[in-house]
């Protein structure tokens, strides 16, 4: 899918989700920690936000990142073809691909991560109660959460509380690949 289509979908979805919640730009900025100016650019489709920015906006709205990048309504069965997967590059040769996600009845996202040797990604704290589960498919992951580092090897799995800052790092000499599920309780923006 071309970047312009995704940018337009993000713009439309952020506007629609904010309007649905009768939230002003200032309220969304305060809840998300994203500046009002950046939110205006996102809603007008003038920028392609980073994963962190999109995550903050989605968290503040109580929806998944997947909902933010959806191009059309979700049918009962949704097959996401490889060509339609949204990729977020980071580092020199690394990316996080959001394969699929839902926001009802609970927020779930399925990700495919790839990291080049020596690269890392710092994840912001998600809303309280958010959990991440992942398994390493290739390489070796050093996962740091709340000041402690954990080595996760091929075929190992881990689950952790993602409501605090965390880091995914590839300290090895070979590419790292892992699949991750993020589960988040429904937020309070609709309440």
Low-confidence stretches: none
Beta-strand percent range: 25-35%
Distance between the termini: 34 Å
Helix content: 25-40%
CA-based gyration radius? 16 Å
The description of the largest β-sheet is: 6 strands, antiparallel
Query: How is the largest sheet built, in terms of strand order?
Result: 1-2-3-10-5-8
Q: Estimate the global geometry from the Cα principal axes.
A: globular
Would you tell me the structural class of the helices and strands? alpha+beta
User: If helices are DSSP runs of H or I spanning 4 or more residues, what is the number of helices?
Assistant: 5
Order of helices and strands: HHHHHEEEEEEEEEE
Mean pLDDT: 88
Could you tell me the number of beta strands? 10
In brief:
It contains 5 helices and 10 strands.
SSE inventory with pairings:
Layout: H1 3-20, H2 25-32, H3 36-43, H4 51-61, H5 65-69, E1 86-90, E2 94-102, E3 107-115, E4 120-123, E5 131-138, E6 140-145, E7 148-153, E8 157-161, E9 166-169, E10 176-184
Helix pairs in contact: 2-4
Written description of the protein model:
This protein has helices spanning about 5-20, 25-30, 35-45, 50-60, 65-70, and strands at about 85-90, 95-100, 105-115, 120-125, 130-140, 140-145, 150-155, 155-160, 165-170, 175-185. It has about 190 residues and is α+β, with helices and mostly antiparallel strands. Strand 1 (about 85-90) and strand 2 form a beta hairpin. The longest helix has 18 residues, at about 5-20. About 30% of the residues are buried.
């Amino acid at each position: 899918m071309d970047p312009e289509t995704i940018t337009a979908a993000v713009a439309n979805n952020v506007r629609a989700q904010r309007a649905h919640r009768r939230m002003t730009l200032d309220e969304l900025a305060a809840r998300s920690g994203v500046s009002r100016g950046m939110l205006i650019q996102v809603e007008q489709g003038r920028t392609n936000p980073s994963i962190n920015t999109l995550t903050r906006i989605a968290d503040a709205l109580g929806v998944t990142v997947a909902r933010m990048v959806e191009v059309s309504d979700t049918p009962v069965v949704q097959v996401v073809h490889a060509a339609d997967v949204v990729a977020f590059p980071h580092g020199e040769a690394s990316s996080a691909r959001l394969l699929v996600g839902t926001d009802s009845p609970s927020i779930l996202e399925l990700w495919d991560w790839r990291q080049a040797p020596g690269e890392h990604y710092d994840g912001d704290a998600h809303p309280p109660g958010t959990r991440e589960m992942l398994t390493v498919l290739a390489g070796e992951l050093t996962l740091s959460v709340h000041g402690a580092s954990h080595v996760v090897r091929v075929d190992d799995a881990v689950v952790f509380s993602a409501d605090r800052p965390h880091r995914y790092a590839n300290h090895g000499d070979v590419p790292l690949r892992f699949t991750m599920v993020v589960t988040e309780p429904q937020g309070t923006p609709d309440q």
